[in-house]
Amino acid sequence: MAEVNLLNKLPRGKRNVNARAEAKSPEVIAESRKYGELYFDGPRTYGYGGYRYDGRWVPVAEDMIRHFGLKPGDRVLDVGCAKGFLVKDFMKACPGLEAFGLDISEYALMHCEPETVGRLHLGNAKKLPFPDNSFQAVISLNTIHNLDRPDLITALREIERLAPGKGFVQVDSYRTPEQKALFLEWVLTAHSHHYPDGWIELFNEAGYTGDYYWTIVE
Ligand SMILES: C[S@@+](CC[C@H](N)C(=O)[O-])C[C@H]1O[C@@H](n2cnc3c(N)ncnc32)[C@H](O)[C@@H]1O
Q1: Buried b (16+ CB within 10 A) or exposed e, 80-114
Q2: How buried is 189 (Cβ within 10 angstroms: 0-12 exposed, 13-18 middle, 19+ buried)?
Q3: pLDDT for 150
Q4: Measured in angstroms, how far is the CA atom of residue 102 from the centroid of ligand 1?
Q5: 70 CA from centroid of ligand 1 (Å)
Q6: Closest protein CA for atom 27 of ligand 1
Q7: Could you tell me the distance, in angstroms and rounded to a whole number, from the CA of residue 1 to the centre of ligand 1?
Q8: Rounded average pLDDT per 10-residue block, the chain, 218 residues
């Protein structure tokens, strides 16, 4: 289990924390948590403000392929794959790599990248419909923190079950009280967030032995 920044090469978008904080309400949060059109392609208040493919995941996929030593014929799963951008870029970065995704959002899957049709499954991170040890790597980016603690532990055990020691999860975190305050202004969908120590404790409780990194609002 190691802390490793596999999203190092992803361009960082500008976040208008003040605008988000002003627009946030229980209704907006409830709408965002439906992971429908408003969340992906509606105004920024509800989430992404337009979630479109632009190839930015290719260098990330290359780093993940290198990190896990993936090769053609291997299977990789992206839990919380949304419209399949990373799944597409895994296949671009390593032709012959069998990349798949799973997401709870029917909207995202219905608007997926054409190359990923048939590779994306509708489902919940807490119950992955695949056999034990069936993937050479399982990735989950900014997704499992949307579960509450018991479900999150279940989701981590699922990742571990599919790819023992070959997971990578990226989750919401903060290293200082100032970063935590900023995060709380920004957050819409996450049910779970911790300082890195809290996350590591949770990983241990789940028996998760894969790698991890943090999404920090700065
Ligand atoms: C912040 S987006 C991240 C999307 C993508 N992984 C990325 O990093 O761009 C969170 C994604 O998690 C999905 N999601 C939320 N809860 C989920 C759950 N319980 N099981 C599977 N997917 C979930 C949402 O539909 C959404 O696509």
Answers
A1: bbbbbbbbbbbbbbbeebbbbbbbbbebbbebbbe
A2: middle
A3: 98
A4: 9
A5: 23
A6: 82
A7: 23
A8: 95 84 94 98 94 97 98 98 98 98 98 98 98 98 98 98 98 97 95 98 98 96
Element (H, E) at 65: helix 58-68
Structure confidence at residue 145 (pLDDT): 98
What b/e sequence results for 130-164 when a residue is b if at least 16 CB atoms lie within 10 Å of its CB, and e otherwise? Answer: beeeebbbbbbbbbbbbbeeebbbbbbbbbbbbbe
Type of residue at 204? N
Residue with the two structure tokens 């990735």: 139
**CB atoms near residue 178 (< 10 Å):** 10
Of ligand 1's listed atoms, the one at least distance from the Cα of 81 is 6
Cβ(168) to ligand 1 under 6 A? Answer: no
